[in-house]
Amino acid sequence: MKFKIVYDKPQRIRFRCGAYAFDKEYEGAIYNLVTASPYVNSAQVSSANGGILVNYTKGSRSKIIDLVRAINVKTLKKNEPSAEFGIQKIDSDFHDNLFTLVAKHYLSKMFLPAPIRTAITLYRSAKYIKKALKTLWNGKLTVDVLDGASVVACLCQRKFKTAATVMFMLRISGLLEEYTHARTKAVLTDSLAIKTDRVWLVTDDGDVLIPIEDLRVGDKIRVQTGKVIPVDGVVADGEATVNESSMTGEPLPVLKREGISVYAGTVIEEGSIVVTVRQLASNTKISKIIELIGNSEELKAGVQSRAETLADRIVPFSFIGFFATLIFTKNITRAVSLLMVEYSCAIKLSTPIAVISAVKEAADNDITIKGGKYLEAFANADTIVFDKTGTLTNAEPVLEKVVAFGDYTEDEVLRISACLEEHFPHSVANAVVIGAEKRGISHSEEHTEVEYVVAHGIATTLHGKRAIIGSKHFVVEDENVTVTKEQQNIIDEKSGSCSVLYLAIGGELSGALCISDPPRKEAKQAIDMLKKQGIKNVVMLTGDSYRAAKATAAMLGITDYKCQVLPEDKHRYVEEMKQNGQKVIMVGDGINDTPALAAANVSVAMNDASDIARETADITIKGSDLRALVRVRKLSKDLMKRINKNYRFIIAFNSALLLSGFMGIIQPSVSAFLHNASTMMICAKSMTPLTKKNDKDKALSLPEKAEQ
Amino acid sequence: MLKVFKNEKLWCAVAGAAAVIVGKKILKADKTRSLAVTGLAKGMKLQKDAKAAFQNMKDEASDICYDAKTEAGIHEDAAAEEVTE
């Protein structure tokens, strides 16, 4: 492509190819081509003057010039622009449109002769009148009717200038609304799409991480434990147990091996498989979420829906006011002033803008909120329920102590335990194996094949004797091993707040392993901050013993806890709390938290949560920092405050305008201007971030104690 | 007979008919058509040129802002490179 360099400074260069170099449709393709280069930090492309601005990395100027020189428009495809480019485009289009609109309005006012201006006003008013009549025909009395009526009233009085001003204001409001909606949606798409929807493509040179859009039918992808299978396909290699409950409702996982079909949306519980793609997901999960945020009535914040119905309900009163004023004052100018001003427009516009901006602001902070209503629920909640493992803790248990009984030494107990546990790679087993390694204990395989008893423990035969390791419930109640009072006292004394694994050989207790799962370092601070933000009850659900739960609760300032909770009971506890009138936030991460997440008023999944938990949760947090919950709480409360403040302002300001109009203090054109200007101002204010930068930093700073 | 010619309405009708015939001819004439096309094309070009000029202005303004920021040390990397150059 031929170009002229019009600006050339370190790391920034601007090429100009001329107004006829390429069409608007190619902007996206050129942008994609340029930004695909590793030397390019960012770029801007404009077809208006054929401009290409490139911000590049140090020392790569000549490569950038070669890159732009090599662009051949004829070989480019008019492809879909990326989300980032979309945002740039939305911004620049909005600025251009606003500029054009304002310039046209004032230029025509200055230069066009009055009769032509009147003709244009009449032509434009037809659109509003048509829309109003259509709405009336459908038996509705909405803001559209009010807009149409204001225009007609002005025309009837032959006040064409006022009519033109009213329509100009309405067009600016419309433009602003359209822009906010489009931009918020584009930003959401961008922030949600970047880190998700990538798959491991199996190639001859090893596995490569690619965006799901690049996937083709027949490709092979690798899916591992805890991940959602992103496509429909057939297992080509490997073996895994797959949870298909999202499709079949069957809670037990199904074994999938070579040749068996797997479906998009199901989750691998254990194992790793290679899937041959048979059908691509046409609608990715993220695009569905984005659609839902924008469109679903169900997901709209209650306050938003209320605002919208309220807005339309006020309309008839505006008409009553109009006719009443006309009858009492016999002054049409005053009556029209009342039509120019109404509350509905501002309320209807500013509330969704405030909600969507808050959702966007959260997305910028790596927090995905799947609808305005969840922000509202988060603001109103008084109870927060944490699943302990993986949420309050890192889910990286550590072996603290070993207790030996009978003829066994501590090292022997640990050696045998590690030998059994190493066959099952779950977190507690890892703690035992790593604990043995740290103490320099090596072990050889002396046992027969091991048997895994789901959620309980492991059993095998060691030198002809039955060896079992697992929870107290498994060892004592299921396997009938006796634990004497003396032994129990020793275990209780040594274990403190740790969870205990019991090892029994030949029907007798041989040892116990004390395992702790230390809380995250920011957990206490986060809980304290949540309490300050008005959360009254902080509840912890854990499978740990009473002693361990009590110790953790005391350490973190938790107000209530339920110990030895089975996964299926979590859901029941949440339901009970709701029945007691509490408004519950549930924070969880595992597959077994899913029913509890679904039962709560609003649910949160943290970064390392399983895919299924993330899918169920209303709010997902990309980081693992618990203080993000404080940020969501603050954001949601600030949003509610902003909406209520907006209401108060809109009602006070517009009431003052109505009164002034009624008393004849201000003319209809002035009240139309003030009303629309205030509406625009409040919408613009609603778009500003809720959290100030200083607050953000404050929320993230760890006190010294927590750092240690 | 002369009275008929003095009737204004008649002349109006004749003039109207003549205007329609001439007007139709003018509208159908190649010359008019090419004039209109050229006029429209010129208008479109003018619009495109105006857009390009406006975009140029926007670009230059943004470059000036960028330079000011670089001078103020906001783009540290670029400022350092500029100094070394």
Descriptors:
heterodimer, A: 708 residues, alpha+beta, seven-stranded mixed sheet, 24 strands, globular, disordered C terminus, B: 85 residues, mainly alpha, rod-shaped
In percent, how helical is the residue content of chain B? over 70%
What portion of residues of chain A belong to β-strands?
15-25%
Calculate the terminal CA-CA distance of chain A, rounded to whole Å.
59 Å
Compute the separation of the termini of chain B in Å.
Answer: 98 Å
Major pleated sheet of chain B: none
Q: Number of helical runs of chain A?
A: 26
Low-pLDDT stretches of chain B are: none
User: What's the tally of helices of chain B?
Assistant: 4
How many distinct beta strands of chain B? Answer: 0
Question: How much strand of chain B?
Answer: under 5%
Query: In total, how many beta strands of chain A?
Result: 24
Radius of gyration of chain A: 33 Å
Instruction: Give the chain pair forming the largest contact, with residue counts.
Output: A-B, 18 and 19 residues
Write the H/E string of chain B, N to C. Answer: HHHH
Based on the structure, what is the oligomeric state of the protein chains? heterodimer
Overall mean pLDDT of chain B: 81
Descriptive notes:
The complex is a heterodimer of chains A (708) and B (85). With 708 residues, chain A is α+β, with helices and mostly antiparallel strands. Chain A contains 26 helices and 24 strands. In chain A, strands 5, 6, 7, 8, 9, 10 and 11 form a seven-stranded antiparallel β-sheet that branches. Chain A has a seven-stranded mixed β-sheet with strand order 12-24-23-22-13-20-21, sandwiched between helices. In chain A, strands 14-19-18-17-16-15 form a six-stranded antiparallel β-sheet, with helices on both faces. In chain A, a hairpin with a 4-residue loop joins strand 3 (40-46) and strand 4 (51-56). Chain A is globular and about 110 Å long. The relative contact order of chain A is 0.09. Chain B is 91% helix and 0% strand. Chain B has one domain (8-68). Chain B is rod-shaped and about 95 Å long. Chain B has four helices and no strands. Chain B has helices at 2-6, 8-28, 30-71, 76-84.
